[in-house]
Amino acid sequence: MVIRFKKGKNQSKHKPDTLTCIRDDGSVTWTYLHRGFVHHDFAHYVVETTLGFENAFFGLVAKGYDIPDFSEPKAQRPFEIPKEAMDTEPIVALLQADFPNTPNVQDANSNGVFREHSATLPVNITDKQLEVMCRKLRTLLQQWGDLQSGESMVLQFHI
Question: What does the pLDDT read at residue 133?
Fold first, then answer.
């Protein structure tokens, strides 16, 4: 699956960032991203690709789930969110906590919050996996920061 993040031209004038996923079968799903959500979705990408998750957000989108459906109330959602997807959220949150939305990605907290709270995670994360996730996320955030409004970043996701 191809994942395209496009930097909005002006957040305050209703031209926000967008996330578009083009599945291997050619079908497309997309959404506007609220401020700060690029960071969250980058963290998802890093966690899912590093840990080999196939049933978290991007894995489910690759399998045919539509992005807007994830925002629907549980009773209206056309699917149940699998346990792996639920287990991914606290990992993503802790990883994000170590990489705040700062102008300089180098200001990241060197995984201090993650390490401090990792014992509470539903999945064991090795030091090597954490190192890889931090490196990948730092790189994505730096690349995103270097983009001009209207430019895109493209990532590949394979399950």
Answer: 95
